[in-house]
Design a protein that fits this description.
binds NADPH dihydro-nicotinamide-adenine-dinucleotide phosphate; elongated; Rossmann fold; five-stranded parallel beta sheet
């Protein structure tokens, strides 16, 4: 349970992004909520509101909580961001201005790992294409052709061995598929082989599952060179961020047979997806649904509310991001 505010002064919060019932209804009347679904809404808030706001809930990655937006709120203490990825929140600005940023890790880990595993199998065994085949009546004339891809005899390189990467690796263990990984540092308590060099790993495997954070450090890290190293049996699964993959290079690699297939949950310019990808038969495309089940989204919403309430009860936030650690509170 999370306690109430420690003073009788009302606490002004801004909800920035799509409205979510659990967040909207999660606060007592000690709080005053200001709603701005878009950046334009945020800019239209009256100056008196900018002066008062002490907490912000950023409810989706499509609204940029950048320096320009955040600088409008001189009393801001906490930004509670929905989702585990927070590349749309300027955490460097927050750190400089003594603002804590929280995200919603752990509560979505298994859900996203399920999607990664499902997307991998759907891509290899052509579930979507086979479904279309059945619906079109073609099964009545002949059996569906054998899939070229299979999870058997594959070796998977996981790009990012954090919470979700490790949950994907557990699923691959259960399927008896060998796993190695790439990240900047070896993950503690993880026995899989670590490759400090992504190209070296891509050469050693035939499948990449990408689950690193977005942001400058990972932009286009899956490029033409990596795809070439992966090779003609290669399958790319991206459940991280669209920015992590050089999308034109991927389209080219799929068209030319440089790799075999791809399963993508995320895209560079969502919700816009390149037409060329939509016409290809060797890709499975999902509309960014990694964590998008009712049960998991509810848990994420609740963690946004609990981070804000915990903070305004004078306690440390539940899940601060590493860039804005909190000391000496509560
Ligand atoms: P973690 O922070 O637990 O793990 C991140 C991993 O990525 C670590 O192993 C880290 O290791 C590695 N990493 C970070 N930066 C780099 C880099 N520059 N180069 C190589 N490896 C890097 O995060 P989670 O597992 O909880 O989540 C990962 C990401 O998944 C999120 O940030 C989010 O963007 C995405 N996601 C997508 C969802 C969807 O709907 N499709 C849903 C949920 C999350 P090291 O620091 O040693 O490099």
């Amino acid at each position: 349970m999370v306690g109430g505010p420690i003073s009788s002064e009302k606490i002004d919060l801004v909800i920035y992004g799509p409205l979510r019932p659990i967040i909207e209804n999660g606060f007592t009347d000690h709080y005053v909520l200001h709603k701005s679904e878009t950046r334009a809404d945020l800019e239209r808030l009256p100056p008196s509101v900018f002066e008062k706001v002490r907490g912000m809930a950023v409810t989706y990655h499509t609204v940029p909580a950048d320096k320009e937006s955040l600088a409008r709120f001189p009393r801001l203490e906490i930004i509670a961001s929905f989702g585990v990825g927070y590349d749309h929140v300027d955490s460097a600005y927050a750190r400089e201005h003594n603002i804590v940023v929280t995200n919603t890790p752990d509560v979505l880990t298994e859900e996203v790992a399920d999607v990664a595993m499902g997307l991998l199998i759907a891509t290899l065994r052509e579930f979507v294409k086979a479904d279309r085949y059945l619906r079109s009546g073609l099964w009545l004339t002949q059996n569906y052709p054998l899939s070229v891809g299979s999870l058997r005899d594959r070796k998977v390189g996981i790009v990012g061995m954090g919470r979700i990467g490790q949950a994907v690796a557990r699923r691959l263990d259960a399927s008896r598929v060998p796993v190695v990984y790439h990240s900047r540092n070896p993950a503690s308590g993880v026995a899989y082989k670590h490759y400090p060099d992504l190209i070296e790993m891509a050469k050693a495997v035939d499948t990449l599952i990408v689950i690193v954070p977005g942001g400058a450090a990972t932009t286009k890290m899956i490029n033409a060179e990596v795809l070439k190293a992966l090779g003609p049996r290669g399958v790319l699964i991206n459940v991280a961020r669209g920015s992590v993959v050089d999308e034109p290079a991927l389209v080219q690699a799929l068209k030319s047979g440089t790799i075999l297939a791809a399963g993508l949950d995320v895209f560079a310019n969502e919700p816009n997806v390149p037409d060329e990808l939509k016409t290809m038969q060797n890709v499975v495309l999902l509309p960014h649904i990694g964590s998008a089940s009712v049960v998991t989204r509810n848990a994420m919403d609740q963690l946004v509310v609990d981070n804000l309430k915990t903070w305004f009860a004078g306690k440390p936030p539940l899940t601060p991001v590493p860039e804005t650690p909190v000391k000496d509170r509560g």
